[in-house]
Amino acid sequence: MVLSPVIGKLLQKRVVLASASPRRREILSHAGLRFEVVPSRFKEKLDKASFPTPYAYAIETAKQKALEVARRMHQKDLRAPDVVIGADTIVTIGGLILEKPVDKQDAYRMLSRLNGKEHSVFTGVAIVHCCTTDAQLDLEVSEFHEETTVKFSELSEELLWEYIDSGEPMDKAGGYGIQALGGMLVEHVRGDFLNVVGFPLNHFCKKLVELYSLPRREDLRRVKHDSIPPVDTFENLSDVEGSGSDPAQGDDGGGHGRAEADGDRTQAPAGPQGTDSHGTGESPPPFPAGLLELIDGFKASKALFVACKLNVFDVLKVDGPLKAVDIAGKIDASVCGTERLLDVCVALGLLEKTDRGYRNTELADVHLASDGEYSLHSLAMHSNDHFWSLFTDLELAVREGASAAFGRKAEEPVQSKHKTLQFMRAMHGFAMLTARQVATAFDLSQFTSACDLGGCTGALARALTQEYPRLKVTVFDLPEVIEHVTCFQPEGRRTDRISFMPGDFFKDDLPEADLYILSRILHEWPDDKVCELLSRVSSRCKPGGGILVAEKILEDKPAARGSLPASLNLLVRTQGRERGLPEYRGLLERHGFRDVRLAHAGDRLDVMLGTRASPP
């Protein structure tokens, strides 16, 4: 990888590192990045138990650190930096997150737990792009995580205490620093060494390649790169001294390369062919690996769907590892076909293959087994059973428009209980992944009551009540949905601050509330129905009340790959459509909501908050 053009994409931007860690500062400055250092004041008090995986906790912590710095800098001088980088490093073993020890005895407990064993080091990284327009701050977050596996040697009590007495463990996640004396504890490392130090530089550079298109290789030879200026420090922003995070803590933090894979590969464009290195012939265009993967992409999706339908991931979560012949017997399939399907799942990063047989990856255990709290099994099944056939009409919808394609479809009969539950599980799985990000996109502590229109299983309602102790939430959805919500109530987490009310938000009276929520609702409907719904909400919402809308906002720049299928879903399935921020803002303002603000809730959702103005 040629780092100069990668890092060079940020040289003309004001970049801020939201971390006081000297290790992160050293890694990034040695890579040639110019940046300012503004330690974050974010209080690291997130509930670890509320996250499906350790790396999800690390990513969220990194994101909150970066967002806090971006918003504080914007409030100080009404202009945020162009890019804010946040990171958080954690050490995990057996699902337990080890952060910085509070004293020597705590350090001993941590190191004893790691002694002679393998553990994982996760770093979550958030790259926040800031845009200020008319004093309005818009934020877009890109995030990733990296995992490195570290094995400790069998260490004596004397050696452990000698290391602890050196003082080095006290500001390090997991109680050790691999780049210094702690290196003597380590037997081997699998993965990115710098990730253990505190920042996954290689993955960071790959992420920059995704975010910024690079010049063609032949152009790089013609460009003369200036020397890179040294790092600037910016420690004294406003009243940062004596408050907020202690810079001595070094906030080290985590992510998982296997689940992320490579994403979209950037290919050099095929243009006029030049001569080869000997000047005697024409060189072929770059090999279109990414394009070939795209052409074959439907096969990977279908393999995933079939594996879910045959309950492969459920079987392996309970009994794995298993040989192909044993799995075939449990799923009632041929050994030959099963083995080929399993090998494809290995290639996709969903399974691992060892001498003992096949077993789930962590990703599959958490998201593809059907019984997990954050399972996407039903979303895969809904995509297979519902969307797969609908997408055969994509050509028709493109040629004749959504209305024509929608009109040709036979009216669906009333859904069976099975299909209703499958749809609800699909929506619930996605909501569990995004609910907390939506709930925390804005500070909603001013509201004491909320109504989640089309709130389905109440996943967002639970996230809201966990985040805001004074808030009561009413989930308002169709009777056939409310009938089944008890299937989705987590044991031990019931709260009297959540209630469910059956009704049709186009026909029935809406419950009274300070805040009305429309999460992934408006894109399903054409403009006339959106206006009808917003008019009903506006007439019910009192001045000073609010409306919270969560959707994927269309942007002028090329869309992220993950957001593209949604607009096609609407083309083949409904008469709704995606909209851009100006259009959503106009719709809300037309119905009496002012001061419409935007925040990003991960890669798949954006959140808008508007305030009900007093009638003229």
TrEMBL record:
GO terms for molecular function: nucleoside triphosphate diphosphatase activity; O-methyltransferase activity; protein dimerization activity. Residues 253-265 have a biased composition (Basic and acidic residues). This is Probable bifunctional dTTP/UTP pyrophosphatase/methyltransferase protein isoform X2. GO terms for biological process: methylation. Keywords: Acetylation, Hydrolase, Methyltransferase, S-adenosyl-L-methionine, Transferase. Residues 292-370 form the O-methyltransferase dimerisation domain. The gene is ASMTL. Residues 392-594 form the O-methyltransferase C-terminal domain. SUPFAM superfamilies: ITPase-like, S-adenosyl-L-methionine-dependent methyltransferases, Winged helix' DNA-binding domain. It holds the Pfam family Dimerisation. It comes from Mustela putorius furo. Its cofactor is a divalent metal cation. Homodimer.
